[in-house]
């Protein structure tokens, strides 16, 4: 088994020095202020080197998932690791988020009218076009060096996909396909252990569990086909549900920094709206926080100060 590198290793130190400027520019592009250099030295660099060494070049791309609660930092960490792999280690990489394969408003309206009104709200299992994700993986895996593949892109403030002509284009066949999903790797909850309403949203809008049980059943379908394709599952574990609420609010504030259109800015959620929105995710998030660490290949922690650290490495070693 490939040894997981330490930030004190010579290779890690050299790669950090070679990529520091590149990654600082990347942080600015992502609207990240005051980038913590230990995030790069202790997390991004060792993880990128490990993936490069543990997953040698082969014909088919490796499918790597980052999972964890909303706002845990999955998309950010994935983006930095992709940057190091593709531009410094010469291992081509691309990625997408479970947020990029949402069902359309029209599709969710049908679900809302036939199953339960809460089915219209995007986010929980059942509101994603999983086949879109499976098709994308197939396209990238079947590509050659001249193939151009469009990567789905979703606009959260508008609650719809960007026009297809504006989707990012990846040329060639990648060595790695990264996927970040707040519920990546999760399995359906047994209804034998089903709890009643978990929060005010469920008490007021789904007291009989029609919507929550529907979403749980959806998780048992095509999501498991997608999740079973993972070559590695990497989890970012946050302390508790309160952290998820606060992190999602910070995520919304960061999103507002990237928007210049005044009309679009009006669609950014308030703090109360964000907290109500996260209630849709709470039931499955408890499962993610409690059960997924035992199913993941690598587990990182993110604390209240937003500092990352490794909890468990690929050899099962706890730190």
Can you describe what's shown?
The chain is α/β, with parallel strands linked by helices. The protein has one domain: P-loop containing nucleotide triphosphate hydrolases (Rossmann fold, 3-Layer(aba) Sandwich). The protein is built from 12 helices and 10 strands. The protein has helices spanning 10-29, 37-54, 74-87, 105-114, 130-141, 200-205, 210-219, 222-227, 241-257, 262-265, 271-278, 282-291, and strands at residues 62-68, 93-97, 148-150, 154-155, 160-161, 169-171, 176-181, 232-237, 298-302, 308-312. A 6-stranded mixed sheet has the order 2-7-1-8-9-10. Strands 3-6 form a two-stranded antiparallel sheet. A two-stranded antiparallel ribbon has the order 4-5. Helix 1 (10-29) crosses helix 2 and helix 9 packs across helix 11. The longest helix has 20 residues, at 10-29. The radius of gyration is 19 Å and the shape is globular. It starts with 9 loop residues before the first helix and ends in a 7-residue tail after the last strand. The model has no long low-confidence stretch (mean pLDDT 92).
Mind sketching the topology for me?
Blueprint lengths: L9 H20 L7 H18 L7 E7 L5 H14 L5 E5 L7 H10 L15 H12 L6 E3 L3 E2 L4 E2 L7 E3 L4 E6 L18 H6 L4 H10 L2 H6 L4 E6 L3 H17 L4 H4 L5 H8 L3 H10 L6 E5 L5 E5 L7
Parallel strand pairs: 1-7, 1-8, 2-7, 8-9
Antiparallel strand pairs: 3-6, 4-5, 9-10
Write a concise keyword list for the protein shown above.
319 residues; alpha/beta; Rossmann fold; six-stranded mixed beta sheet; 14% strand; globular
């Amino acid at each position: 088994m490939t040894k997981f590198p330490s930030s004190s290793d010579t290779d890690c130190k050299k790669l950090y020095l070679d990529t520091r400027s590149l990654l600082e520019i990347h942080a600015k592009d992502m609207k990240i202020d005051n980038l913590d250099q230990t995030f790069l030295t202790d997390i991004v660099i060792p993880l990128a080197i490990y993936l490069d060494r543990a997953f040698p070049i082969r014909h088919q791309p490796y499918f790597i998932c980052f999972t964890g609660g909303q706002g845990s930092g999955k998309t950010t960490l994935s983006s930095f690791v992709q940057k190091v792999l593709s531009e410094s280690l010469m291992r081509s990489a691309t990625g997408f988020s479970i947020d990029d394969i949402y069902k359309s408003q029209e599709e969710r309206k049908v679900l809302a009218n036939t199953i339960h009104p809460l089915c219209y709200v995007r986010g929980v299992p059942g509101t994603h076009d999983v086949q879109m994700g499976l098709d994308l993986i197939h396209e990238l895996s079947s590509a050659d060096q001249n193939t151009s593949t469009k990567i789905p892109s979703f606009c959260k403030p508008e609650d719809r996909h960007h026009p297809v002509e504006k989707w990012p284009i990846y040329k060639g066949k990648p060595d790695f396909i990264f996927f970040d999903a707040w519920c990546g790797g999760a399995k359906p909850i047994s209804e034998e252990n089903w709890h009643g309403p978990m929060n005010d949203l469920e008490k007021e809008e789904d007291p009989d569990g029609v919507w929550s049980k529907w979403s749980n059943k959806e998780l048992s379908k095509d999501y498991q086909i997608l999740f079973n394709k993972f070559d590695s599952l990497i989890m970012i574990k946050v302390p508790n549900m309160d952290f998820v609420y606060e992190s999602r609010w910070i995520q919304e504030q960061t999103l507002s920094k990237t928007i210049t259109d005044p009309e679009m800015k009006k669609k950014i959620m308030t703090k109360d709206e964000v907290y109500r929105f996260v209630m849709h995710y709470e039931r499955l998030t408890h499962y993610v926080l409690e059960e997924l660490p035992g199913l993941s290949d690598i587990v990182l922690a993110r604390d209240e100060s937003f500092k990352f650290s490794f909890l468990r490495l690929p050899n099962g070693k706890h730190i």
